[in-house]
Write a structure and sequence with these properties.
The chain is an alpha+beta fold and about 775 residues long. Helix content is about 20%, strand content about 40%. The chain is built from twelve helices and 33 strands. β21 and β22 form a beta hairpin. The two termini are about 60 Å apart.
Length: about 775
């Protein structure tokens, strides 16, 4: 501070001197600042004392140049003023060196070398530094005392906006080497001010309680985990808009917020809010007109307007009609169409006429499509998913569908699309697509324990984007108490240019349920291979066809039930089965994993064709539906029906290909495969008919902004397995409800559920906590 005062006094005395005021001090012969010598032509300008600030920067600020005539009594003040006004220097001295050299000695202000913030818990350090940068306070910036006031004011603004009115800011300045300073900011946040009372004045049509229920802000709660009573300027502003929308959606077009008064208690802990409103009268709609020249029939556009004359004025419904017209124009390439709604208010009759003014502009075409952000995926892999093409008419619907198809790729984490105008053209846009690739491959080895298979050993390799081609290769080895399996598959989603996919797979599976206490006990060794094709029929539907071969060798143990022993004696213990698979899928989900909207329907037929040593067929149908409740919560429901039949010399499914239920993947709360018909030893033997259903609310982990690959859900499962369709009985349904957690880990999906069975019967094998988990090493 002393340095700042001294330099200021020096500057003022200099200005007084060069203005012609004499001093008692004898001036030196070569000092321009203290000399009344004559003018000279500047041959050179020399700067001394600058260490951090570039010479060219200083010269650029000077009002004089080489070969200028320098008159000390006139030009000294101009030079000093121009340099001091930059704020870069704490002291400036002008001298004349020799006959024609102007010497400028400067003393630089220190720079901010570090900014250290401590004591902040509610607001992240990065957020506080970002706010400071917006006020031009950052590392490398010039420091002066006025900066401290700016820092304190900006930090208080951040905390006040979130209700921390009792916060205190303490700033220490420490000198650092090389003419730098450190700003050490210590924050005492204090408690967030809580809303003691909210009063709405002027309401007549709706009660105060009704209006208060609309607000995100509320008076003090007993619940210690609630934040609704924490005051925030942003939250109050949003509440005011909520009130405005509520009234204007119910006919009160003249509704006004007269004032909002916020007062705080002396201890800065309690907030009192008074909102003064003026409702006005309720208005209804008058005549509705459509204006503008467009080559779409007006009748079609008019049909998109859902409001009609005589309806109560509702802003949201009016905006909905405007958006619908805009979307329809976009389908025909009018990307920059404008639809303005002009109200014609008649206060005497309390009606509002509406005029939808359409300015379609020119049809817009896509000039170029570019992809950014992919570091592994080939460009053609992304382009083949595009439904909006270069050179074609711009369509928001096709752009949105392209985005959905891209984000449905297993190796894509996020997709965003910008449509900037081409400079100088009003009929062309570019598509700039930014993608963020997720983890496309993994190799893992692990040990674990699952409630459905006991101790497990896992070795797996998976690559969903092999060499950036979009092809997938999977290999896995799993060993549990009941099953040991080795599998390999390769999938090409674009086996042909038309989008026909092909999947080739093979497996070896050894099954030993002799120690299983839930299902029938037997031994089985199965080997198989298959090839399957997927043929796209439309944007949402796919037909699937495949052929496969399986060889199953059966064995019995001392614990094998009589039914299986009899089956082996009568039918044999080796079965070669050639199967034909047909399927149809209609999928409108926005994502294949953690979908938030859309539905998927699947129909399937699996048949052991003639030539197989056991002939049968299976029919299946499954349905899943997703609907976003809000940004964090999604409602989901699913249903599944499976039925199997023998044909030829057989009436039923072979016991080793029956349906089972119970466990994490079918009906939680019951042991895996334990439900349904029982064998002679009272273990589940499976059935030829199965029905399952689920209702679920899915949400990310609480207090987590970016949930990533984790989700919670509240669920209820219901269903059962039956001997055949003739034995189906709703009264035999089993059910459960509870909470589940899913994590898409590098070793595969890990699922945990805690459930409570209901409608269970004596003898049911219940298992409230179920999980499948592994550890990578």
């Amino acid at each position: 501070m002393k340095r700042f005062i001294a330099s200021s006094v020096k500057y003022m005395l200099l200005l007084i001197f060069v203005s012609g005021v004499t001093t008692a001090q004898e001036p030196s012969a070569n000092s321009v600042r203290s000399s009344q010598s004559g003018a000279f032509v500047i041959a050179d300008i020399v700067i001394e004392g600058n260490n951090r600030i570039d010479l060219g920067t200083i010269l650029n600020y000077l009002p004089v140049r080489n070969r200028d005539v320098f008159v000390p009594s006139e030009d000294s003040a101009r030079v000093l003023r121009s340099l001091y006004e930059t704020g870069l220097f704490s002291d400036v001295l002008l001298k004349q060196r020799g006959r024609d050299t102007l010497l400028i000695e400067v003393e630089e202000r220190p720079a901010i070398g570090s900014i250290n913030i401590s004591g902040n818990r509610k607001v992240e350090t990065d957020e506080l530094k970002k706010s400071l940068r917006q006020s031009d306070i950052a590392l490398g910036r010039v420091y002066n005392r006025s900066i401290l006031e700016t820092v304190e004011r900006e930090l208080r603004r951040v905390y006040f906006s979130s209700g921390n009115y009792g916060s205190e800011i303490d700033i220490d300045v420490t000198d650092l080497p090389r003419n730098r300073v450190a700003l050490d900011i210590n924050i005492t946040e204090g408690a967030i001010a809580r809303i003691e009372h909210i009063n709405i004045v002027g309401n007549e049509t709706y009660s105060e309680d009704t209006l208060l229920d609309l607000l995100h802000s509320s008076e003090k709660k007993i619940n210690p985990f609630s934040t609704a009573d924490e005051y925030s300027q942003v939250k109050l502003a949003a509440d005011i808009e909520t009130l405005r929308s509520y009234y204007q959606d119910r006919g009160f077009i003249r509704f006004e917020i007269d004032s909002t008064q916020v007062s705080i208690s002396p201890d800065k802990r309690d907030i009192f809010i008074v909102i003064n409103i003026r409702e006005g009268e309720r208005f209804t709609l008058g005549d509705i007109q459509l204006e503008g020249e467009v080559d779409i029939p007006k009748e079609e556009l008019t049909s998109l307007i859902t409001v009609k004359e005589g309806d109560v004025f509702a802003r949201k419904d009016i905006v909905k009609g405007s958006n619908a017209i805009n979307d329809r124009l976009g389908e025909d390439g009018y990307a920059f169409a404008e639809v303005d709604v002009i109200p014609r208010i008649n206060d005497e009759e309390r009606t509002v006429g509406l005029t939808y003014v359409i300015n379609p502009g020119k049809r817009v075409y896509v000039r170029r499509i570019t992809f950014n952000g992919q570091y592994k995926t080939r460009d053609e892999v992304l382009r083949r998913e595009m439904r909006q093409l270069e050179g074609s008419r711009f369509s928001p619907a096709l752009v949105n569908r392209s985005r959905v198809r891209l984000q449905r790729l297993a190796f894509m984490q996020s997709v965003s699309i910008r449509t900037p105008r081409v400079p100088g053209r009003d009929d062309q846009v570019d598509l700039e697509i930014t993608v963020q690739e997720g983890q496309s491959g993994s190799f893992s080895a692990g040990l674990g324990y699952g409630s459905d298979g006991g101790a497990t050993v896992n070795l797996a390799f998976q690559q969903d984007n092999l060499f950036g081609t979009g092809e997938s290769l999977q290999f896995s080895f799993d060993n549990s108490d009941t099953t040991r399996q080795l599998s390999l598959s390769f999938s090409d989603p674009y086996f042909t240019d038309d989008g026909i996919s092909r999947t080739i797979g093979a497996f070896i599976r050894e099954t030993d349920t002799s120690n299983n206490t839930s299902t029938s006990r037997y031994l089985a060794s199965t080997r198989g291979a298959s090839v399957r094709f997927g043929v796209p029929l439309s944007e949402f539907s796919t037909f699937r066809v495949g052929l496969g071969y399986e060889r199953t060798e059966l064995g019995t143990t001392s614990g094998t039930p009589d039914e299986i022993n009899t089956f082996v004696e009568e039918e044999g213990d080796v079965f070669n089965i050639y199967d034909l698979n047909l399927g149809f899928t209609y999928d409108t989900r926005n994502r294949t994993v953690f979908a938030t909207s859309g539905a998927v329907n699947r129909f399937s037929l699996e048949a052991a064709i003639p030539g197989s040593e056991y002939t049968y067929y299976k029919l299946g149908y499954s349905f899943e539906y997703f609907k976003a409740i809000n940004e964090r919560y999604t409602f989901s429901t699913s249903a599944r029906i499976d039925s199997g039949y023998g044909y030829g010399d057989f009436e039923k499914l072979p016991f080793f290909n029956r349906y089972f239920a119970g466990g994490v993947r079918t009906l939680r709360g019951y042991r895996t495969g334990s439900l349904g018909p029982k064998d002679s030893l009272e273990n589940a033997s499976g059935g030829d008919y199965r029905t399952l259903g689920t209702l679920e609310v899915i949400f990310p982990p609480p207090f987590v902004e970016e949930p990533g690959a984790t989700r919670f859900s509240l669920f209820t499962d219901f269903g059962n397995v039956f001997t055949s369709t003739d034995s189906f009985d709703v009264d035999e349904f089993r059910g459960s409800y509870g909470v589940a957690f899913v994590w898409l880990s590098p070793v595969g999906p890990l699922t945990f559920s805690l459930s409570n069975p209901y409608n269970d019967q004596e003898g049911d094998k219940k298992q409230r906590f179920q999980f499948t988990i592994g550890s990578i090493f």
